[in-house]
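Colleagues,

Please find the record for the two-part complex below.
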Amino acid sequence: DQQVKQNSPSLSVQEGRISILNCDYTNSMFDYFLWYKKYPAEGPTFLISISSIKDKNEDGRFTVFLNKSAKHLSLHIVPSQPGDSAVYFCAASARTGNQFYFGTGTSLTVIP
Amino acid sequence: GAGVSQSPSNKVTEKGKDVELRCDPISGHTALYWYRQRLGQGLEFLIYFQGNSAPDKSGLPSDRFSAERTGESVSTLTIQRTQQEDSAVYLCASSLAWDDTEAFFGQGTRLTVV
């Protein structure tokens, strides 16, 4: 039972344009959401997070939007750079739990 | 080192053999997690430790899988009588406390069962 879903396995974007990565979740108990970035042969690294009390969080070129009613979050990368090419995982957790639930990942390719 | 360390980085084993995967978390991190990623799939939760105890073993796929942690530090994930479907990258993560919402990952162990 996949509680966190990333329905786009891959995405290609031109350098300088906006990359939008989407994530949906089913468990209404989730109250903290994270994005991880993963390069080949490396472990995932934390990118940005958002608490359910917010609907937007920005960190430089990265912005995460949360729509609680739709159980949907998205990661925007503006402007996209070739070094952003990686697999991006959306993850969710509940304060009452101790487990991170991950999506299946979206492979982003930024074309120079 | 400053990060989560996993060993070996690669392991090829014959079907039916036992394997042990090791994780050294960040010093002082009380929570430790094991995940695996099979080819073409997302990260799959296996087990987590709070200190040396594992309150949640629900993710272990079968009784061939076991894990332990000692000294609130090193953890080993053991797979007995490996099967080809066990081939995956096994990732370990640690976090400062059990209710911390950010985990730091190791580079993973790529296990190939032939």
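The interface with chain B takes residues 2, 6, 32, 34, 36, 41-46, 49, 89, 91, 93, 95, 98-105 of chain A (CB under 8 Å).

Comments are welcome before we finalize the supplementary table.
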